[in-house]
Amino acid sequence: MKIAALICSTAVALLLGLGVGASQAANCQDALNNNRYRCQFNREGVGPDEGCFQFDSTPTLSSKFDLDAGDGDIFGCTCKAKGTVDEPAFNASKEFACARIVGGAVAAALEGKVSGNGQKIKGGFLSDEHGNSQVFECERDPTCTP
Question: What tens digit of pLDDT does each residue of 18-37 get?
Fold first, then answer.
């Protein structure tokens, strides 16, 4: 009986060590992977609003992934780096940063942090070239269309 328990616990430890059964994505791009999100916004000087985001892992703007915020607003995105300046680990974080380009210049910047399984985005912040800002949180919703 003790041998069976030892074999079982060893197998579970090995599978967990290999990541089998884990619901954690490697980085933000893996977690956001082509998902749609329903978001609650609070815009400075405007107040609450709702909208949808869709992430695209076959980007047209960024070399990593894009964010479609609707109405033709496409942001090029990347996962933030981890580590230090001396030893960075690029594209390694669950935090992401995106930029929207208009007329060859950055017109808005957006950032947030996705949960390990990609269900939620927390700590979202957007600012535009005029200094306007908004905060947001999102939950994955495959029915939401930007």
Answer: 333 345 678 999 999 899 99
